[in-house]
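debug: dumping io for the single-chain case to check the tokenizer round-trip. Nothing else runs in this session.
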Amino acid sequence: MRREDVVVTGVGLVTPAGIGADATWRGMLDGRPTAATDPELADLKVDFTCRVPGFDAGRLLGRSRAWRLDRVTQLALVGAREAVADAGLDTGDRDPTRVAVVLGVGSNSLERYPQEFGRLNARRAERISPLAIVRSVPSMVPAEVALDLGARGPSLSVATACASGTTALGIARDLLRGGSCDIVVTGGAESGCAPGVVACFQQMQALSARTHDPAGASRPFDRDRHGFVLGEGAGILVLERAGHAAARGARPRAVLAGYGASSDAHDIAAPHPEGRGAAEAMRAALRDAGLAPADIGHVNAHGTSTPLNDIAEFRALREVFGQPPVVTANKSVLGHALGGAGGIEAALTVLTLQQQTVPPTANLDTLDPGIDLDVVRKSPRPARIRAALSNSFGFGGQNAVALFTTLT
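debug: decoded output
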């Protein structure tokens, strides 16, 4: 029996390119990098990040609500509200037990932990916030979104490092296919620009140290790439079975036609040098969708701008496709939102399919001679695309790939 399609009916985005899907999409088409010197990092060797500009949580969520939430939860909540509104969905008119929330979150309280532990180290334990635990556990991100929406179906937090947001999409899709719910608010969120996080990645030598030119630091597939740039944001999608969406008169944006996941089982941080696990995840997504490599017209690459990741992803693409389709790398503009990146990039892949336009990859001045890819650069490229992949590959070799198709 043919499985019913799972469709995307709503998209919400909060990114360094702008607050809202429209603002983010315009920023991606402009192709202007968002990395800039970060005043909070003045004492660090790497002193720049990609932060969401003008994000006033008190104005967007209400001061009392915003006060009790970690920044990652604030980002997720703003993105979720936009996605639900975009879907034309009033959750109050639905059976709340049939609405689920599944969000990818790599970690939580990255900005508040130092404050709380600082009080403990100063022997001021009585000053630790009674909300510290409630704010800090990653499960509170989907829990707060569920509370805001009145969603009483499954509420799940997914952590597969930088693949978390894409893994959440796969779990959400399976909940719908299994009949556990009718609507899932899913995707990912992260706020990874805290000084402690930057210091840790700096010590790993994973970050670009291009302090003289922050805007040019994230340069996926470029010959002169040296590392990634930390970012933040949220990418939220509303998923439904096609029949459910049609019954309530919703207009889907795209179909989540396939999902694939794998593990490199190679190293705690470095990808398999030949992209073995990444290739298997892409093949799994193709099998799930019942498509062939030739059916894919675009790949939204993981594209972190690290020497090892970019070459491994290229090799995986060559193994799967032979000659890969048109590629772009959103992190060149937005930086790397860690556990939130998969949700953000999935949402942008959906917009790419809708607009039939591939956003450019910033800072790609000279393609690495060891990477033979057709990467869109300088300006957007109109393209006829029926199906596209969104790749996410995380520390520990955790790989997840979402495959989206147009409605016809």
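debug: round-trip ok. The mean pLDDT is 93.
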